[in-house]
Specification:
With about 280 residues, the chain is of the alpha/beta class. It is built from 8 helices and 5 strands.
């Protein structure tokens, strides 16, 4: 039965044009990824399938995770290099995760615009906004964008060591998953629909993309000035390729009965990772 279900899922993905090896720069199902490291260990518990078509005119809003929560709960990981090996932070006053979130988000937007996507970056005017409902936070701006029909994507790097889960997409919860969600999951891995009972960003309609655990080869390639731009460019290409794939022509309609139903509760294991924005709401 399990084998048959997996075959159905792979068949559906192939029909969507989202099967193995479609998204350039992604090494298929190889794990760990040569650049981004281990994929989400929860990918095997994926309980959703993004088959809803997305208009090609959809505007994509890219956010840098933790850009509004420095110095308070939810400021992101400092990374293995700083915490475990005593390396100097990349920039004084902010966690290393935010530093890489920002550079990655900017690279994605720059490349997306070159490719003709309707894509833009939102960077809060303040690095510390205590009130999560302040209209200037990632959550507030992303929620408004998603409510208006756009696609909001918040970029993160996951915690290092056992607290981290790995690369993957956590889909938004304000609507059924769509082809953009599915394409990004194919490129990076996936998390269950209601990971940790629903994080603050997904509950506000914002997809979270964990690029990878901020450790080892990935962090080393980012910190090495000789490899930094190449690594950021490769990550940006993978994200933009996935976005283009998700915005592609509508696939043939698939009978609803053939689509696996999401489980009622799939939160993933408790973890000491910090929240995915300025609070835990």
């Amino acid at each position: 039965m399990a084998t048959h279900r997996r075959w159905i899922c792979l068949t559906l993905l192939a029909g969507l044009g989202l099967g193995h090896g479609v998204v350039a720069e992604a090494p298929g199902w190889k794990d760990p990824d040569p650049l981004t490291g281990p994929r989400s260990r929860l990918s095997q518990r994926k309980d959703w399938l993004g088959i809803r078509s997305v208009p090609t005119t959809t505007e994509i809003l890219v956010l840098a995770g933790h850009a509004d929560s420095q110095g308070i709960a939810g400021s992101g990981t400092s990374g293995e290099a700083v915490d475990q090996f005593g390396a100097k932070p990349m920039q004084a006053g902010i966690r290393d995760e935010l530093y890489w979130n920002l550079l990655t988000a900017k690279a994605i937007v720059a490349l997306g615009r070159q490719r003709g996507l309707r894509i833009r970056l939102y960077d809060p005017p303040l690095r510390t906004i205590v009130n999560v409902n302040d209209p200037r936070t990632n959550w507030s701006v992303g929620k408004a964008h998603a409510s208006a029909g756009g696609y909001a994507l918040e970029i993160h790097y996951d915690a290092y060591g056992p607290d981290g889960v790995g690369s993957g997409l956590i889909p938004p919860l304000h609507r059924p998953p769509n082809r953009l969600d599915e394409s990004l999951a194919q490129a990076f891995g996936s998390y269950p629909l209601r990971y940790r009972q629903g994080l603050g960003a997904p509950r506000r309609g914002i997809a979270i993309l964990e690029i990878g655990k901020l450790e080892g080869r990935l962090e080393g390639s980012l910190r090495d000035p000789r490899r930094r731009q190449t690594s950021l460019s490769a990550i940006a290409r993978r994200v933009v390729n996935a976005l283009e794939q998700g915005l592609g022509p509508s696939p043939t309609l698939i009978p609803v009965a053939a689509i696996p139903r999401p489980g009622a509760v799939n939160s993933g294991p408790p973890a000491s990772r910090l929240p995915a924005s300025s609070g835990v709401e």
